[in-house]
Amino acid sequence: MPHATFSRAPLNKAIRRALFAAAVASLAPAAAQAQDANAAQTTTLDRIEVTGSNISRGDMETASPVQSITRQEIDRSGKATLAEYLQTLTSDGAGSVPRTYGTGFASGGSGVSLRGLGAGSTLVLLNGRRMAPYGLADDGQKVFTDLSVIPMDAVERVEILKDGASAIYGSDAIAGVVNIILRKEFKGVSVRSSYGVSGEGDGQMAKASATFGFGSLNDDRYNVYFNIEGGQTDEIRVADRRDRKWIGTGDARRWGYSQTKRFMNGFILGDDASPSPAGSVRNPITGQYQSLPGCAQFSPITPQDPNGGCLWQSGQFNSLAPEEKYVNLFGRGTFALLDNFEVYVEAGYSRKKSTFHNTPNSVSGAWGYPGGPVNADSGDGAVVLGPNHPDNPFPGQAVNLRYSAFDVGPRIIRGDSEFSRVLAGIKGTAGGWDLDVAYLHSESELTNTRDGYLRYSAVRDALTNGTGPGGWWRIGQNANLNNQALYDYISPTIHADGKTTLDLFDIKGSRSLTELKGGSLGIAFGAEWRRQKAQLDPQTYTDTGDIIGLGYSAYRGTQEVAAAYAEMVAPVLESLELSAAVRYDSYKGGDSATTPKVGIKWKPLQQLALRATYAEGFRAPNPAESGKGGLAGFTASADPVRCPGGNPAAGASVRDCDIQIAVITSPNPDLKAEESKSYTLGLVFEPTSNTTITLDGWEIKRSNEINVETTSAAVAAGRVVRSDNNLPGIPNSGTLLAAQAAYVNSASTTVRGIDLDVRQGFELGGYGKLNLDLQWSHISTYEREEEDGTTFEYAGTHGNCDVTNCIGTPKDKINLGATWEIGNFALSGVANYIADFKNVTAEGNACASRYADGTPAPGNGCRIPSFTTFDLSGRWRAKDGVEVFGSVQNLTDKIAPLDPLTYGAINYNPMHSSGAIGRYFTVGVKYDFQ
Predict the structure, then answer these.
(1) What is the value of pTM for the model shown?
(2) How far apart are CA 654 and CA 850, in angstroms?
(3) Which of 80, 335, 655, 891 could form a disulfide linkage to 222, CB 3.0–4.6 angstroms apart?
(4) Beta strands in 163-221 (DSSP E)
């Protein structure tokens, strides 16, 4: 098995970059020593800053709902990365990008999707400022920030602004803001290492980090610290879970499903067939497919296909979790300049390599490229065994072929990404103003390399003519006769290169104007200029449609925007605070918007605060949507011709009700910008010093939504490609292969729900203390109105895969945590609950999946069951500076429910991935010393 490895040169390069940043910051002591050692220390630099506002405050509660996540909450989860933790938040939903999506367009990245509105509508900040997006856009469209580049041990806390667009950070934050706040200063040395392994003995994880710093801002007037973190996680294959019910198998017949379910291949349906390792050909006389000999040597599955096919599990080669190797580096230097100013420098670098295995390539099917769809399934473009091919059972006649290239091996996807970020700024107080000026440069570069894919032109030559290098491509049981020259010809290594850059300059200032009855009237002004470039060169040969089954994705463009904003916080009474902000964004090229935000917080009682906000948002089309390039991908769809109303027509099969098809999309320069309006109404109740309850209702309405036109609309308009196996008496009704769609401005999406956060502490005297916390997110509405006026409700459903990535939108997600501390010990537990949801594409639609007997699936009302896991962690301070910790995720080894409509996983939903991997153990040690 090939493995991704780090070369020594890039790692040395990474270390040099980080040490250079630390060296720049280390100039601080010399500058500080030049100052009067007895100079008065200013206190204006130590202020409370809350995500969503640039005005310092005396308390953390604002009119906006902000969830603050402490370092302790992250640690107790046992998660190895910050991305994994954030994707367990109850506010994260459909459109999230897990690292297990190795076959997706954004392979190797990790993104969070607040409110289920997509990773592209969630703004991720590092210390209040942006980062360059990941080098690959999710689904070829959604530009997002890769969370895996954040050094977890440098994180101090995370703040989630959950009331939609932010007039402070950028009007494109339609779904909300995730602000990851790293340590401002650190003194001493902290070393941490951990090791993890699953209950099956695989998926080993080794991780180590070190943080060291010197100087004190208060005493020495400077601080410099540096963090390095590295780790490796071994791959887990789907086949490694073969004994974990449906998780490790594509053969779901024992649970009542048909052999034509998506993760089984090799079946024959008369005039159609899916690819098999033995191969099957279409009899030129009867028009029916028949299998070539040799199935037994490739597939142990029993019972086999009663129609003579060669059944095999398409997921047996797949990675359940990829192999990953990474290093993250971060350095920060801060030093006092004069009495009222400080200069700060941040530098970060990350490099990650991942390897993901996928099913062997087949030789037929359909896919797309900028020139349109390619049909290798039927017609003139069909892949055939030539009249003289030695494996052709019908000599003298070309015959259509269905074949999965076991002899070539699995498709292997390798990602190699680099991320860098440098920030330099100065902040302080002058003339009563708190000022902050900074410049930021950030880059993300990625190379996506793939092996095991088939070149269409070479395959057709090797199977039809046999005149290329290596001669005839012998298939199935005769594949042992091939030579390496043939495989080099039909399956070359291919790659795609992506790069994004971000340059940003901002200046902001705030001050108190006057005293009101409730406190100081605060104002803030700011201006920002940023330029973001994105470029993705397509996978080799996909620009001509010459890689079988691989979609095309490429884009190139630049966004340049200038913005200005103003903010005010007015405590007009001791019990009443008003806030307002307005932002103006002007995009080079014409798009511009003014987006306001207003808030109110009223405390009728000392223990009770009522709050509300209204905000507007604006997102201009990104380069992938309106620039140069295009997209040709795949989606799951029900064929309205062969599966009308969710039921197979005469001559069709349940396969037609859940089929993977190619979708070809081109950028649209006439797209309008997305706009949004968001509302929140809530309360904060603190009946005791140890009890805090927050309850917020919210609604976000996004209009002019930029989406790929729905598959159903493309089918209705006739922009489709079908196979030639028409239904009896119905012309142009063959198996659906591809559709041509466009980026369009849909009418709107409205999402609304309720968030509850409860925190309760108990002092137990000699038995220590107990802290409980609960987060509950309820989505009552996820309504999408299409461009033709049709409205669909997705809350509580699996949802249209074009909208939810086939993850679904359960109405309820709950996290319940408890931490007991006594002496040097701490024990924590977290229960994670995901509600059940209907296995339908939208509320009111027919069941999206069927058992083999035609009844709705899964049982119990065509619903995906709820899923609850429990994570346990513990810590022991063995002595001063030494801490031993450990955790068990999915303590009860709960198995993820069988999900027949899933995407990016096999037989389970990606939301339930911990139930696919199973119980996972982590142990580690941390050593702090001065």
Answers:
(1) 0.86
(2) 7
(3) 335
(4) 176-182, 188-198, 205-214
